Amino acid sequence: MTIRKKLLVFIPLLLLLVSGVAALLVQSDLLVRSRYEQMLERMLLYQRAEDLAEAQLASLYRYLADLKPKSRQELEQNSALLTRHTTLLKESGASLLNVSALPLAEQLLSLQRFSGEARISAESGSEVEALRGYEQAEAVSSYIREEVQLLLEGNMEFYQERRPQLEAQTERMGALGSALLVVITILGVIIALWISRSITIPVSRLAGLARELQSGNLNPPRPLPSSTDELGQLTRVFEDMSVGVREHVERERQLLEKDRLVKELELKSLQSQINPHFLFNTLNVVSRMAMLEGAGKSSDLIVSVSSLLRYNLRKLDEPVTLKDELTQIRDYFAIQQARFRDRVKLTIEVEDASLLHLRLPALTLQPLVENAFQHGIADLEGDAEIGVKALYNKNVATIIVWDNGAGMSEETLERLRKMEPAPASEAHSGIGAANVFRRLELFFGRSHLLSLSSSPGKGTVITLKLPLSAKEEKHDPDSDRR
Domain for residue 224, yes or no? Predict the structure, then answer.
């Protein structure tokens, strides 16, 4: 059964049971209340009969005393009320076992009859007959008071006898309602625990699997057979996903291993074609010969080429210092100056000598300077300038590489910000800027280290914000002067 079906079945069932218990208690309360209301209505009916009889007798007395139309109208109104009340007594029965209200109704009729006879006698001038009729009406009114008192006492005795029964019935219904509420509460707790366990246990298993995968264990223990609800489906999908991740990681590992082997083969192939030591020794011999022949500039150029080649053939996965990178930039500039001569100027500024010990990937700054030469100032006739500036700001080393060359289009800037490789039409034999930026992110384990600003004809500024380690921050800057 799915979780949705469990909730849709058991929650309405509990609500229905609670509603049934509430309806039962309300019905019991209404029953008791209706019985008390019946008793009160009977007593009020009797009391109203006594009040109407007294009013009838009083209005009869006033009419016999003055025989005015107003008094007669009042007498007729009281007689009409008395007639309607007598009808109510007869229709309702208003009796309980041996307590009957029919005698009271008969006496009310007698009161009306004697009142009528006294009125007629008074109107015909027979005062004696009118007085006799009034005395008879007064006697009937006295009987009515006594009858009402008997009826009230009879009703009180009747309900006094029934009161323990009503109270017992009320207590039974209350106890039944309380028992049902307890049963419903226990049942609700059991259902809640059952539904919650069907949710929490599979979730805990999934959390355990996720922690295993997070810790690097791609072969976690398989969970127990899951249910057919939504969480069971989620568990099976998660297992399938872990299998897919394991297969994907294995494929990636094989691809990386393949790439590593290919690079090793390529490196061995290059090393087999050119012996670096032989090349360096040859360049040193040529440099000495040029020095002996008085060609000092040629000798310096050859030394720069030798140093640059030696640096490029080192292990690129080992970090270097900013000082090493700046040295290679100077060697590279010396080679390029043989071509550009006085058309180009290099400026290197280091604000704090401790920055020279900043560790970064090899071939980070020299490719950027090379790009400035090839794409920035190559077409300038003069006053070309390339600069490298290193600044210290709290825990960050800011390195700025700038030129006043041709600049870049917005499309090229956007491509570099996204670290996309250059298209084939713009590629060259050097290391691309996108490659440099990506290696910096991998080396420092952070993103957003780079900011670019450029516009056509106004040069380019590349800003690198590299985090400093505690060791680099505390390095003694005087060590570079010794």
Answer: no
